[in-house]
Write a structure and sequence with these properties.
This protein has 874 residues and is α/β, with parallel strands linked by helices. The chain folds into six domains: 7-55, ADC-like domains (N-terminal domain of TfIIb), CATH 2.20.25; 66-133 and 326-531, Rossmann fold, CATH 3.40.50.740; 135-320, Dimethylsulfoxide Reductase, domain 2 (3-Layer(aba) Sandwich); 571-692, Beta Barrel (Barwin-like endoglucanases), CATH 2.40.40; 697-803, no CATH class; 816-873, BFD-like [2Fe-2S]-binding domain (Arc Repressor Mutant, subunit A). A hairpin with an 8-residue loop joins strand 1 and strand 2 (19-24). It contains 28 helices and 34 strands. The N and C termini lie far apart (61 Å). Helix 2 (74-92) packs across helix 19 (468-478), helix 3 (107-121) packs across helix 20 (490-506) and helix 8 (217-230) packs parallel to helix 13 (294-308). The strands form eight sheets. Strands 5-4-16-15-14-6-7 form a seven-stranded mixed beta sheet, sandwiched between helices. The structure holds ligand MGD (2 copies), iron/sulfur cluster and molybdenum atom. One ligand MGD binds next to helix 17, strand 15 and strand 21. Residues 4-60 form the 4Fe-4S Mo/W bis-MGD-type domain. Keywords: 4Fe-4S, Iron, Iron-sulfur, Metal-binding, Molybdenum, Nitrate assimilation, Oxidoreductase. It holds the Pfam family Molybdop_Fe4S4. One of its GO terms (cellular component) is membrane. Belongs to the prokaryotic molybdopterin-containing oxidoreductase family. NasA/NapA/NarB subfamily.
Length: 874
């Protein structure tokens, strides 16, 4: 029997939008490899894309609709939702309901959600997690260009001579794009500068790292603009296509570059490099967007590119890399509360009339709806009485997450569409609707460089799960708009979306894919990756090289900007700036990546990175737990002492939740401060106080089944053998053997134990018919154990589990660094020293590490570097 042909699709994670080839195994599994024909990745995948096959199982999936915790059928669930929405609107008006959606929805899903809320319910109360992600860029683009247009393409990163990464950890967050950049650097010597308060994996291989003071990007780029002018590097011809240079320059000259806290020599070197390199691309991401001055940061960067005319030509331009797989598609359909559809403006009566006519909609809102943070404020104070959350987890990821969680819990009617019921948000829903997941659904996504790619189904829809567009359309029909929501396929929706973009094109807007409006089912099925615009007159390419912009006069705007410090609260009582962000191998709230043992091995526990001197001042030792606190909330995290953190700043990852580590919900600490223009929250500059968390006991556990923890601190991760967990508590139980049986949910298990009550030490191994069900290791200080070894034992006959380390003849590989080939740090150090491996490629040749997806290459380089430094010091 020959295998069925591979199915082309797109990775569901980051905005790079890599093409994948899927091969179903016939038993519900999928083999996944990079698509060599996709222009974004040309066959490459990062660690997350490579592990997609480990995340498609049905374990934990929501498979039937549920009303008030009871399984039911679609008719019952949707009739109930339609009735509650209708009643709420009838009693309290259309603005008493809201949708909170996601940049991970497919364009077709998103289009239907936006049409239903803005066109038919008649409210603009639809906002999206893109508010937490891309809103400042959208605002900055619109202010400068008159439209939300990404001018360049990925090729520009390869054709540039200088690439500046501002607030972007490209190595971990857009790994395949970073690999493309590093390959270009090898081929043509591209220079790389990283502008980030902390030293990240993206700094390995960079020429210069500018550790600027948090929130000081406007001061930095204002200084650059003033220097551009002083050096005579402005482009007078291009400036005729812009307005505002004089005011922008006056503001820039008045700025104090000392606000950046940077070494003047480094600052001067950066300006020289930027000014002296025509082919310069400035990449920016959440260090720019997620700020109370986010839109100004964006415009400060755009100012420099406009002043020099370095935009829209090969190898030059500002480049916003988008986070989510369809952040761009969401902007195209107008999914934000202040946008219409097809990049049309909600506040433009002509645009409104055109969309209303096209949709044959009863009413269109005249004013913007509530932006994410305000939307949940309105949920909290009862203005919003019916809420539908689709494909996002706001109880974890919004600022002030504990208060948001409480507001959702108190909302009279909450609907959640998800692929699992085990999320902090889904647990609060009155109605849960099961959506088909990546791999099961069909539609399109647009990546950071405007390339529209198809996601295609390779697996059947499990249980009663339905695609998000289908659920939304069904609700539209049940609310009385049968004709407007009479969709039978995503292809039909895509055609309508493409036709509407033609109307926008008629208004002279950038987003025009009208040439795809006639796509038939076969054409949609076969649609290859296509960069917009796609109209009768335009095909892909770059924007703005010709100096034509989308403001009514056709010109761009430079803005006069001044540095505004992050909005902080707490003062001297909260002396640390809390920076937050991502780690290499997890995706947001981990509902997918957390299922993969390989991905969970990289960093298995939430942490707080802190400078060793700050930790010393506070009496915090490595591996201690730290309590982080401010007026908004608190968290408990594991301390990692590291000089990559500047003094006075700490960093924590965003990924842990009530499901995986309830004390590590980091947004519990982020106050609801937003950028005044974009409404995007300041997610990277909360002020916090720290102190050592005094635990009475610390524990480590491994288990075949999901344990049931309730201690003050716990963090759970998947392993090939089941689970591993870190624990800590404030009161010691009387009997550790019984406690182990309770926590590991094995009340009947046989126990082997070593107990030393006087010193507070306990080791308990639980067996059933000779196989290890789980084990618990406890001490009064953080327990030192060979965790990676112990994590492999559950399910085996391991009699030596109590020893806490492998038998003497079995070397301990150490924490996994290369997820693809499961290579641990100890194995690497040993091989590097024994075989004199000099570079990352040599490591790959010897151990395979780093030779598949390449995501760990920056860490391999850092390891080599630190060994070299150690040797030099010896
Ligand atoms: N592995 C992984 N990849 C992802 C995701 C994921 O969850 N996991 N999520 C995706 C999504 S949705 C997004 S939005 C992107 C985000 O991608 P990135 O923006 O690259 O990621 P972050 O870690 O949020 O933040 C980037 C950097 O901003 C820095 N920063 C903080 N404050 C400042 C400041 O004031 N100025 C400057 N210049 N820098 C600052 C932080 O130190 C951090 O290193 O990643 C996408 N890719
Ligand atoms: N402090 C701090 N907070 C942040 C950030 C930060 O850097 N710092 N970053 C912000 C950013 S940039 C982002 S993008 C957000 C991300 O935050 P969220 O969007 O809230 O996080 P996700 O885990 O991506 O949530 C996606 C949800 O959709 C579900 N899901 C998966 N597939 C499907 C499907 O096909 N259909 C449906 N209906 N559901 C599905 C998943 O199970 C999961 O529950 O977090 C933001 N919050
Ligand atoms: S870089 Fe990685 S996560 Fe992003 S789209 Fe490509 S494979 Fe997926
Ligand atoms: Mo994002």
């Amino acid at each position: 029997m020959t295998a069925a042909p591979e199915i082309r699709s797109t990775c569901p994670y980051c905005g790079v939008g890599c093409g994948v080839l899927l091969q179903p195994d016939g038993g519900g599994g999928l083999a996944v490899r990079g698509d060599p024909a996709h222009p974004a990745n040309r066959g490459r995948l990062c660690s997350k894309g490579s592990a997609l096959g480990e995340t498609v199982g049905l374990e934990g999936r929501l498979l039937t609709p549920r009303v008030l915790g009871r399984d039911t059928d679609w008719d019952t669930a949707l009739d109930h939702v339609a009735a509650r929405f209708r009643d709420t609107i009838a009693t309290h008006g259309p603005d008493s309901v809201a949708f909170y959606v996601s940049g991970q929805l497919l364009t077709e899903d998103y289009y239907v959600a936006n049409k239903l809320m803005k066109g038919f319910i008649g409210s603009a109360n639809i906002d999206t997690n893109s508010r937490l992600c891309m809103a400042s860029t959208v605002a900055g683009h619109r202010r400068a260009f008159g439209s939300d247009t990404v001018p360049g393409t990925y090729d520009d990163l390869e054709e540039a001579d200088l690439v500046v990464l501002v607030g972007s950890n490209l190595a971990w967050c857009h790994p395949v794009l970073h690999q493309r950049l590093l390959a270009a650097r090898k081929a043509r010597g591209t220079q790389i500068v990283v502008i980030d308060p902390r030293r990240t994996a993206s700094c390995d291989g960079a020429d210069l790292h500018l550790p600027l003071a948090p929130g000081s990007d406007v001061a930095l780029f204002n200084h650059l603009l003033a220097e551009i002018d002083r050096a005579g590097a402005v482009d007078p011809d291009f400036l005729t296509r812009t307005e505002g240079i004089e005011a922008a320059l006056a503001a820039a000259r008045a700025e104090d570059p000392g606000l950046t806290g940077l070494d003047p020599g480094d600052l001067a070197a950066f300006c020289r490099m930027w000014i002296g390199t025509t082919r310069v691309v400035t990449v920016f991401s959440q260090g720019v967007n997620q700020s109370s001055s986010g839109s100004d940061k964006v415009n400060a960067i755009l100012n420099c590119h406009l002043a020099t005319g370095r935009i829209g030509r090969p190898g030059m331009g500002p480049f916003s890399v988008t986070g989510q797989p369809n952040a761009m598609g969401g902007r195209e359909v107008g999914g934000l509360a202040n946008m219409l559809a097809a990049h049309l403006d909600l506040d433009n009566p002509g645009h409104r009339a055109a969309v209303q006519g096209f949709w044959q909609a009863p009413a269109l809102p005249q004013a913007p709806g509530l932006k994410a943070v305000d939307m949940f404020r309105a949920v909290a104070d009862g203005r919003i009485r019916a809420l539908w959350v689709i494909h996002t987890n706001p109880a974890v990821t919004l600022p002030q997450a504990d208060q948001v969680r409480d507001a959702i819990a108190a909302c009279p009617f909450v609907v959640v569409s998800d692929i699992t019921a085990a999320t902090d948000t889904a647990r609060l829903a009155h109605v849960l609707l099961p959506a088909t997941a990546w791999g099961e659904k069909d539609g399109t996504v647009t990546n950071s460089d405007r390339t529209i790619s198809r996601q295609r189904a390779a697996l059947p829809a499990p249980g009663a799960a339905r695609p998000d567009w289908d659920i939304l359309a069904e609700l539209g029909r049940r609310m009385g708009w049968a004709r407007a929501f009479d969709y039978a396929s995503p292809a039909e929706i895509f055609r309508e979306h493409a036709a509407l973009s033609g109307i926008a094109g008629g208004f002279g807007r950038d987003f025009d894919i009208s040439a795809l409006a006639g796509l038939d089912a076969a054409g949609y099925a076969a649609l290859p990756p296509t960069r917009w615009p796609v109209s009768a007159t335009r095909q892909g390419g770059r924007f703005f090289g010709d100096g034509r912009f989308y403001h009514p006069d056709g010109k761009a705007r430079l803005l006069a900007l001044r540095h505004r410090p992050p909005v902080t609260a707490g003062g001297a009582r909260h002396p640390f700036t809390l920076n937050t962000g991502r780690i290499r191998d997890q995706w947001h709230t981990m509902t997918r990546t957390g299922l993969s043992p390989r991905l969970s091995a990289h960093l298995a526990e939430p942490f707080l990175d802190i400078h060793p001197a700050d930790a010393g001042d506070l009496g915090i030792a490595p591996a201690d737990l730290v309590q982080v606190q401010n007026p908004t909330g608190r968290a408990i995290l594991r301390a990692r002492l590291t000089p990559v953190q500047a003094r006075g700043q700490v960093f924590a990852p965003i990924h842990w939740t009530g499901e995986t580590a309830p004390s590590a919900r980091i947004d519990a600490l982020v106050p609801p401060v937003t950028d005044p223009v974009s409404g995007q929250p300041e997610s990277k500059a909360a002020r916090v106080a720290l102190r050592r968390f005094d635990a009475a006991w610390y524990g480590f556990a491994v288990s075949v089944t999901a344990p049931a923890f309730d201690s003050a601190y716990w963090a759970l991760a998947r392993t090939t053998a089941g689970y591993r967990a870190e624990l800590a508590g404030q009161t010691e139980p009387g009997d550790w053997v019984e406690e182990a049986r309770r926590l590991l949910r094995a009340p009947e298990a046989e126990a082997l134990s070593i107990l030393d009550a006087a010193r507070g030490r306990a080791r308990v191994a639980l067996y059933h018919e000779g196989r290890l069900l789980g084990a618990l290791y406890v001490a009064r200080e953080p327990v030192a154990l060979l965790r990676d070894h112990l994590a492999t034992l559950p399910g085996t006959e391991a009699r030596q589990a109590l020893a806490g380390r492998p038998p003497a003849d079995q070397p301990d590989p150490g924490p996994v660094l290369c997820a693809c080939f499961n290579v641990g740090v100890n194995t690497l150090v040993h091989a590097i020293e024994a075989q004199q491996l000099m570079d990352v490629d040599a490591i790959g040749a010897a151990l395979q590490a780093g030779s598949n997806c390449g995501s760990c290459r920056p860490e391999l380089a850092a390891l080599l570097n630190s060994l070299r430094q150690r040797q030099a010091a010896e």
